[in-house]
Amino acid sequence: MNVNPAKIALVLLVVTVLPLTPSSTMQVGLSEKVLVFPYETDFSFVALIPQKEMALRAFTLCMRVATELPEERQIILFAYRTADYDELNVWREKDGRVSFYMSGDGAFFHLPPLSTFRTSLCLTWESRAGLAAFWVDGKRSTYQVYKPGHSIRPQGTILLGQDPDKHLGGLEALQSFVGEVTDLNMWDFVLSRSMIQAWHYKHKVPKGNIFDWATMEYELNGNVMVVDDD
Amino acid sequence: MNVNPAKIALVLLVVTVLPLTPSSTMQVGLSEKVLVFPYETDFSFVALIPQKEMALRAFTLCMRVATELPEERQIILFAYRTADYDELNVWREKDGRVSFYMSGDGAFFHLPPLSTFRTSLCLTWESRAGLAAFWVDGKRSTYQVYKPGHSIRPQGTILLGQDPDKHLGGLEALQSFVGEVTDLNMWDFVLSRSMIQAWHYKHKVPKGNIFDWATMEYELNGNVMVVDDD
Amino acid sequence: MNVNPAKIALVLLVVTVLPLTPSSTMQVGLSEKVLVFPYETDFSFVALIPQKEMALRAFTLCMRVATELPEERQIILFAYRTADYDELNVWREKDGRVSFYMSGDGAFFHLPPLSTFRTSLCLTWESRAGLAAFWVDGKRSTYQVYKPGHSIRPQGTILLGQDPDKHLGGLEALQSFVGEVTDLNMWDFVLSRSMIQAWHYKHKVPKGNIFDWATMEYELNGNVMVVDDD
Questions:
Q1: Less CB within 10 Å around the terminal CB: N or C of chain B?
Q2: What is the mean pLDDT for each group of 10 consecutive residues in chain A (230 residues)?
Q3: Rounded to a whole number, what is the distance in Å from the CA of A117 to chain B's nearest CA?
Q4: How far is C86 from chain A (nearest CA, A)?
Q5: Could you please report the per-residue DSSP string of chain A?
């Protein structure tokens, strides 16, 4: 099945040119909701519209995620792409490691496996020293030093469910996400351990200033369900 | 060893024609009791008599189950059959996944393995969206979309311990259950997360309106023991 | 890459001859800090200066440690060497066991694997009966009897990150530590279970009288980062 390039182009247009203007297909707010990607496809994804431009020298990205996909299957968990670069892609790799890539080679982490049960997954990075870590259910991985001095470029497209290739239309079913995502939040700074643990336990934390699940602007494409989080 | 067709026919008669009439072999109430299936057989099973007809468009089925059977062994966990259909069968598959089938192909879930320790296992399904999930020790699996619009048919036979085949007498030792089952309850609606967690922790929850372990009507067949739950 | 023998010699000089005299490269105090060894090298290490001579007939050594190194990789966790002997080396072995060596053959323990998340690891030994045990997150391993009557010799060099060979310059990248170490403390006696558990939970315990992380004198060499423990 081929993806419709016009559709992708529209998403890019909406996201990059009119990020704050509601469109007929755009929806707002996912409080107490879960995104369910029920099947493997090359056309189902959710475009997320950030509250501010993603020119970033630090960030915290958090989400709760569950999947039944087998361990050896590559899975895209988050994709932020500008015209020429994968600015910030988060993957579960074929070898089970969790990784992220900013404009080139990635950083790879050995974490407990994603499973059918929800995992609280956060990723923190700051440009000054390049310290990067994943946080699983509030516990930090070992730090890695990754791309000190780097900046993430603004004005791209953020997708859940698919990895947009360099060539528009290059969505691959075998990289797609199948499962559930909820409570995705993103901040343009590194949250402290206590804040990340508070988020894990659903206590009060500062609202994400890039993405705030409760007020998220998003566009559903293909076969994605929005269901109550019981 | 062959099963006695007349015996099965009697069970079917008792269960489907006289569900609320005590017989010499029927017993009532399993509060604080555990059913122990000590050996692999093709003749040991427990027939359960529901409190109401099982014409269902939603349900929650819960039980506590423990088994020492090896991971690669298929195990029937619950079988509800009408004349022509396996209406609701729950299995541990050869590949370790837990599954359920309603009149045809099944839905398969990767769960933590059943073990010699007791697992709280619930299954929820509702017909409208087809959302199906297992709950292990109060934690929900990833949702799967399974047979939206389907209805379970009434007037069948419910067995623990064996899978009744289309042809009467088709019980197979290599599918039988060996181990312990207790606290099986069933409701004709989907319990909330908090209710399922309450059940897991043995707090007070609404009594099952299809099956209530404390007042269960059941008939023992073959080699099944009723022992105190210490 | 070869190590510079002069550099090692300097370290030995600083440590053994001027242990309490600050030098231009010596630093003091690691309270709320973590040592990050980001890459595999044969030149990155931290020399630790003890508060008193390490002539020991008993000790408790504690640290919090995290590593992403694969399970089959040998890792040096602590190295204390005098001119002719490895006085006290702590290893994660190739087979995953954790071990320690005092002047010869070692003692090997099956512990939960070190991981990307922090493990609280203590080691206790006393010379009288030779009782030795590791403590993981406050839980004691089975005791082993190891070298009763033995004494650890004073006036050596303590390194984190590398294992100094008999021949100066014999640092091996494939034995080096990669990951994080924090809160290393050492006492010249065996702490009680309740004290070790208190330390694990970061409650108040007697300050280490050989090493006290908060007032630690240390010298960084090669590529080691001191970062805030968030």
A1: C
A2: 42 36 70 96 96 97 96 95 94 96 96 95 97 97 96 96 73 93 98 96 96 97 93
A3: 5
A4: 28
A5: ----HHHHHHHHHHHHH-TTS--TTEEE--TTEEEEE-S--SS-EEEEE-SS---BSEEEEEEEEE----TTS-EEEEEEE-SS-EEEEEEE-TTS-EEEESSSSEEEE--PPP-SS-EEEEEEEETTT-EEEEEETTEEPPPEE--TT--B-SS-EEEES----SSTT---GGG---EEEEEEEEESSPPPHHHHHHHHTT---PPPSSB-GGG-EEEEESS-EEEE--
